[in-house]
C-alpha cells in the first residue's frame, strides 16, 4: 500500500476520533481505513492506537509517531504547493553551459530580456568550448552549435548560427584578398584547438569545396581568436553573432563573400525529456520565440 496515503489516513483517524468519521472525511470505506492503519503498524512493528467500542487513543509510541507524521506530511504538502505555485512561474537558479563566444552583445541582450520577463530565475552561465557532462556537473541545459545532434542526445533545434571567414583590413592589405578556398589555406590563420583537424565545407561558384585552415596559432578560447583576428594577426572562422558589429563597421571584412558556408545550428541539449522544469522550459521557449526563423 501507499505509505504516504497511510500516513494521511492515520492523521485523519486521530483528528476525527473514529474510523467511521475518518472514512467519511476521506471519502473512503471504513475497512480501507483499517487496512491503512494496519499497514503502518505492520511496517513499524508497533501498535499506534488503543481501540475500544467507545473511543480511540494514541499509544505512547503512537503519539511519538503521530508527531513525526504531522511534520512529514506538512513538509510534503508544502513541497507540493511550492511546485504547484511554480508551474506557471519559473523560479530558482538555471545553470546553463554555452560556447565561449556567447560573451557577445546579442546574447547579453537576450539574457537581459529573459530575466526581465522571468525575474524569479537566476541565470548561472558557464562558458566553455569543451563539452560537459550535464548530469555529473549539475547543469540544467547546454547550448551547443552543431550540424545535427548525436543519436543519444536529447536536443531541441533553436536556430541557424552562421559562421564567416573574417580578417582585418590590415591583414587583407598585407596578404591580398583570397579568391577561393585554396588561396585561403595558404594564409596564416587562428584555429580552434578543441576541434581535431577542423575542416569546413563551402559552396563556391564552381561547386562544393573543403577548407582546412593553416594555423600559425591554435586556441581553445574563441574570444582570443576574435581579438587576434581583429588585430590583424591572422584570419579566423567565427560566429556571426560575435563579429556582426565589426563587419558592419569595417573593422573586419568577410573573406570569400561569394561562397556559402556550411550550415551550423544552435541546439538546446538537456538530460531528460521527463520532468522538464518550468525554468528550463521557459528558457528554451524564450530562445525559440526570439531566435527561431519565421516559417516561409
From TrEMBL:
Gene Ontology terms describing biological process: DNA-templated transcription
Entry keyword set: DNA-binding, Transcription, Transcription regulation
Molecular function GO terms recorded: DNA-binding transcription factor activity; sequence-specific DNA binding
Pfam families on file: HTH_1, LysR_substrate
Domain called HTH lysR-type: residue spans: 1-59
InterPro entries linked to this entry: LysR-type_TF_proteobact-type, LysR_HTH_N, LysR_subst-bd, WH-like_DNA-bd_sf, WH_DNA-bd_sf
Family to which the UniProt record says this protein belongs: Belongs to the LysR transcriptional regulatory family.
Protein name: LysR family transcriptional regulator
Organism whose genome encodes this protein: Alcaligenes faecalis
Species classification: Bacteria, Pseudomonadati, Pseudomonadota, Betaproteobacteria, Burkholderiales
Amino acid at each position: 500500500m501507499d505509505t504516504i496515503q497511510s500516513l494521511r489516513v492515520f492523521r485523519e483517524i486521530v483528528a476525527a476520533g473514529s474510523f467511521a468519521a475518518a472514512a467519511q472525511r476521506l471519502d473512503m470505506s471504513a475497512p480501507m481505513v483499517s487496512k491503512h492503519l494496519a499497514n503502518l503498524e505492520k511496517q513499524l512493528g508497533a501498535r499506534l492506537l488503543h481501540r475500544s467500542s467507545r473511543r480511540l487513543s494514541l499509544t505512547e509510541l503512537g503519539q511519538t509517531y503521530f508527531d513525526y507524521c504531522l511534520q512529514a506530511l506538512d513538509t510534503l504538502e508544502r513541497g507540493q504547493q511550492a511546485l504547484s505555485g511554480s508551474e506557471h512561474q519559473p523560479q530558482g537558479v538555471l545553470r546553463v553551459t554555452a560556447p565561449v563566444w556567447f560573451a557577445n552583445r546579442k546574447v547579453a541582450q537576450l539574457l537581459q530580456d529573459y530575466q526581465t520577463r522571468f525575474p524569479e530565475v537566476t541565470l548561472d552561465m558557464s562558458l566553455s568550448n569543451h563539452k560537459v557532462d550535464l548530469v555529473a556537473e549539475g547543469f540544467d541545459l547546454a547550448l551547443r552549435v552543431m550540424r545535427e545532434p548525436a543519436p543519444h542526445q536529447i536536443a531541441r533545434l533553436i536556430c541557424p548560427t552562421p559562421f564567416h571567414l573574417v580578417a582585418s583590413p590590415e591583414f587583407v592589405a598585407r596578404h591580398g584578398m583570397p579568391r577561393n578556398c585554396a588561396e585561403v589555406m595558404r594564409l596564416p590563420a587562428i584555429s580552434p584547438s578543441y576541434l581535431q583537424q577542423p575542416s569546413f565545407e563551402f559552396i563556391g561558384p564552381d561547386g562544393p569545396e573543403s577548407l582546412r585552415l593553416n594555423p600559425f596559432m591554435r586556441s581553445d578560447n574563441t574570444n582570443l581568436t576574435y581579438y587576434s583576428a581583429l588585430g590583424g594577426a591572422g584570419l579566423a572562422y567565427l560566429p556571426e553573432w560575435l563579429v556582426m558589429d565589426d563587419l558592419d563597421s569595417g573593422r573586419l571584412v568577410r573573406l570569400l563573400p561569394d561562397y556559402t558556408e556550411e550550415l551550423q545550428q544552435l541546439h538546446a541539449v538537456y538530460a531528460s525529456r521527463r520532468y522538464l522544469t518550468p525554468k528550463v522550459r521557459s528558457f528554451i521557449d524564450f530562445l525559440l520565440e526570439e531566435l527561431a526563423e519565421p516559417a516561409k
